[in-house]
Amino acid sequence: MVTCVTPTVRCPSCGSSSSSAPRKLFSCHTAALTCPSRPSSPASPAQAKQGLDVVELLRHCEEAHGPAPPPLYCSLISRLLKHPGRGTPAKQAAYGVWRALRASGQRLDQVAYRTGMNLCVELGHIGEARRLMDAMRVAGFRPGWGAYHILMKYHASRGDMDGARRLFAQLRAYRGGKPLGE
User: Fold this and answer.
1) 105 Ramachandran zone, left/alpha/beta (phi>0; psi -120 to 50)
2) What is the torsion angle, in degrees rounded to the nearest 10, for the CA atoms of residue 84, residue 89, residue 93 and residue 98?
């Protein structure tokens, strides 16, 4: 969780501002679309459909404090993918957060790679998800069963059982210490 310490903080959901104590801008306020000045009032559906304002809030804190640690970006992405309705605006906002993480130039860890892969699969960008798995290996990380599961989930959800089986066979070979074949 990142605490944003700026003289005035404006809520993107309701427009209220505060110059009091620091606000935790990347907590349930962002992901649940609630305003800290009115914690029990969620943002309207129209506001939720306009991109969730998460990317704008993230940009504001990056300008004020520099890039946040990768786990924060990953939490935001995961939370957006679980947003009720799982509609395209939430997924597009999550992709905006992913682009901000990639643009920050920070070294990604295994969790960040898997989070990016999961996001790409949710958006139907299987090629990008596979490239992330390859980049994960190049960065010196072992993809492990979690990364393979993400790709298998994509194939299985589209009825491509042959693709899912191929990935499962690769995973078994990988776990056995044997090199992966294409």
Assistant:
1) left
2) 90
CA torsion 110→113→117→123, rounded to 10°? Answer: 140
C-alpha dihedral (40, 45, 47, 49), degrees to nearest 10: 140
CA atoms within 13 A on the CB side of 102: 13
Whole-structure pTM value: 0.67
Tens digits of per-residue pLDDT, 34-52? Answer: 333 333 334 444 444 444 5
Could you tell me which residues are beta bridge partners of residue 35? 38
Structure tokens at 141: 């990380």
Q: What is the largest CA-CA distance in the chain?
A: 59
- Nearest Cα neighbor of 2 from 53, 93, 69 is 69
d(CA 157, CA 160): 8
